[in-house]
Structure formats: structure tokens, C-alpha cells
Design goal:
- The chain is 49% helix and 14% strand.
- It is an alpha/beta fold.
- It has a single domain, classed as Alpha/Beta hydrolase fold, catalytic domain (Rossmann fold, 3-Layer(aba) Sandwich), CATH 3.40.50.
- The protein has a 9-stranded mixed sheet with strand order 1-2-4-3-5-6-7-8-9, with helices on both faces.
- β3 (68-72), α2 (86-89) and β4 form a beta-alpha-beta unit.
- The longest helix is centred in the first third of the chain and has 41 residues, at 2-42.
- The model has no long low-confidence stretch (mean pLDDT 91).
């Protein structure tokens, strides 16, 4: 009898275990769906969706005038990261931000995510939306690679560029292997899987991505929307895909050997505080990054570089006024043929 009782208890325990293994993921999946729906109601979309190759991309344009400023965010980021920049630039010209596939309000699609494909999609998006050139391209981080490739593909459409702590085409060869996309692939895949079951929300992954130490009160008001869009399952999948294509994107950006005398302004984070990735400041990484930022500046004979004092990697969130001023400077130079060339400075 005791033997049967133990077998019965084991069976009950096994049944409970199986039930939990089924119910917990189901509950997490439902939680993620419900939370995403709630976020969509809390933060309604600005702008519109435009079809490109059978998928809809989110495009948000404001202001009027020419040339048009076109913003491209970093890897893993939605257009919300430009929220402190776009309204101010819209006061003097038209400015457009957009979400790449899988981010923000754009559709998810299993399509190539390297910079050349991203740039061609962006050009098609602008064409389909009847946003004619010329353009001033602004790119943050990975978005900088995309914009350099765009400039090489459509040089006659581009009259100026602003790079905001942009990635460099050779950075994977100069950083330790532990900072390569391949080194993070396993952890990112686990995060992508977990995000579908709400772990990104429960464990604070999305919150941590946009909770910057020492950032302005203005960004703290915007951050909840950036966090909400970052927590969408599609955003995790898009980030993984772009990360795996990063090496190819960097190679494609190398094709931009020179920008001639195109007005170019390079904004960089403050090496004295570090990028924030990794959280602690790393002299080796900072020295490599500083050298590569100078090389980006060297792409044009009509360029200068500004180090954003006190800013980490997201200069547009820490020091949006510097990004706005840089865009205005390149805008003025593109219209009057003026020069932006000057020595590197700290501001």
C-alpha cells in the first residue's frame, strides 16, 4: 500500500510539473501580448505607414522646407530615440524619422538586414512617400553605417551628413573578440526567445536599455515610450537579425572611401565618462573608438568633430541641443555652400 501511495504521489507531482511547464509559458505569452496591446494604446503612433516591398514601414515627418533631414536610429532602437531632436529641427526644415523593419511601428519581415538593404529600403520609403531630395542624413551608431551606405548608393541625393557616435566600418577588427556580435549571439538568442514570454518586461531588459545615468529630465519623460517599443517581441528579433548582419554591414560601409567635400559633422560621446557599453569605462575601447571617430571625420575635407561633454553613447538623449546645432550647421552649409571645417573640439 505504501508503495502504491508513493507511486501515486509521484504521478501527481509529475502531473503538476507538466502542468506548470505548459501553463507558465502560456501565461507569459498572454502577458506579453496583453502588455504590448496596452502599450500601443498608451503611446499612439505618430506619422503614417508606407508600403515598401509588400511591408509597411513607419515614417514620421514634420516641418517644411529643404533639404529634408532623414534620421536613422541605432541597432535595437526605434525612432523614439530622436524625440528630443525632431521637434526643434522641424522649426527650420522638414525632418523625417522612421522605424526599420521590426522596430517601433513598422512591420516585421524576414528580409536581409545588412546596411545596403536597409539603405535601399529607406530610399524606396522616401520615394513612395513622395519625400523628394536632397537629404541631410543623420545616423546614430549602427544608423551611421546605414547612412554612409545610403550616401554611396545615392550620392546625388545627399547634401550633408551628421554622424552621432556612429559605428565605424572597421570596429569589429579593432575591438576585442569578446565585443563582437558573434560573442553575444547565444545570449541574444535566449533573450529573443524569452521576450516572447514577457521576460523582457519582467526582468527589466527593456527598461535597462533606456535608463541612462545622469541624463536630462526631458529624456526621462520620453523613456517610457522607448521602453515600451523596445519590449515588443519583434524588436528583439530585429535586433538579433541586424546584429548577425553587422559584419556584412560594416564591410558595405567601407565602400564609402570618401565623401569629397560634403559637409560632415561627427558627434562623439565623452571618452572621460565612457560609452556606457560596457557600464564601466574601458581605456582600451575608448582609445580605439576615439581614433575611429577621427577617421570618420576624415571622410570629408569639409568636416569637423565635436566631443559631447558629459554624454555617453546616446548623444541625442544626453545632449540633444548639440545634435540640433550640428544639423543646423550642416543645413546652413548645404544651402549656402559654406564650410563646417574646424579642429575637433569639446562642447
Amino acid at each position: 500500500m505504501q508503495h502504491l501511495s508513493l507511486r501515486r504521489r509521484a504521478a501527481i507531482l509529475s502531473a503538476w510539473t507538466v502542468g506548470l511547464l505548459v501553463l507558465l509559458p502560456a501565461a507569459g505569452f498572454i502577458y506579453q501580448k496583453a502588455a504590448t496591446h496596452l502599450d500601443e494604446r498608451r503611446f499612439p503612433m505618430h506619422g503614417k505607414k508606407v508600403e515598401v516591398d509588400g511591408h509597411k514601414l513607419h515614417l514620421n515627418c514634420s516641418g517644411s522646407g529643404a533639404p529634408t533631414v532623414v534620421l536613422d536610429a541605432g541597432l535595437g532602437d526605434s525612432a523614439v530615440t530622436w524625440a528630443l531632436v525632431q521637434p526643434q529641427v522641424a522649426a527650420f526644415t522638414r525632418i523625417c524619422s522612421y522605424d526599420r523593419l521590426g522596430y517601433g511601428w513598422s512591420d516585421e519581415a524576414n528580409l536581409p538586414r545588412d546596411s545596403e538593404h536597409v539603405a535601399r529600403r529607406l530610399h524606396q520609403l522616401l520615394t513612395n512617400a513622395e519625400i523628394v531630395g536632397p537629404y541631410i542624413l543623420v545616423g546614430h551608431s549602427f544608423g551611421g553605417l546605414n547612412q554612409l551606405v545610403f550616401a554611396s548608393l545615392y550620392p546625388h541625393d545627399v547634401v550633408g551628413i551628421v554622424l552621432v557616435d556612429s559605428s565605424h566600418p572597421d570596429q569589429l577588427n579593432r575591438f576585442p573578440a569578446s565585443y563582437s556580435p558573434e560573442a553575444y549571439e547565444t545570449s541574444i538568442r535566449y533573450r529573443t526567445l524569452g521576450a516572447a514570454f514577457g521576460l523582457g518586461r519582467l526582468l527589466g531588459w527593456c527598461r535597462d536599455d533606456y535608463t541612462f545615468p545622469g541624463v536630462s529630465d526631458a529624456w526621462q519623460k520620453v523613456a517610457p515610450e522607448a521602453i515600451a517599443l523596445d519590449c515588443r517581441t519583434a524588436a528583439f528579433r530585429a535586433s538579433l537579425a541586424e546584429g548577425l548582419a553587422f559584419r556584412q554591414s560594416a564591410q558595405e560601409a567601407k565602400s564609402t572611401a570618401t565623401l569629397g567635400s560634403l559637409p560632415l559633422l561627427v558627434l562623439s560621446h565623452d571618452p572621460e565618462v565612457g560609452s556606457g557599453f560596457p557600464p564601466q569605462r574601458d581605456d582600451q575601447l575608448e582609445n580605439a573608438w576615439n581614433g575611429m571617430q577621427e577617421e570618420l571625420r576624415g571622410l570629408s575635407s569639409n568636416s569637423r568633430r565635436v566631443i559631447a561633454t558629459g554624454s555617453r553613447h546616446y548623444v541625442e538623449c544626453y545632449r540633444p541641443e548639440l545634435v540640433i546645432a550640428a544639423i543646423r550647421e550642416v543645413y546652413d552649409a548645404s544651402r549656402n555652400g559654406g564650410s563646417v571645417a574646424a579642429p575637433t573640439s569639446r562642447q
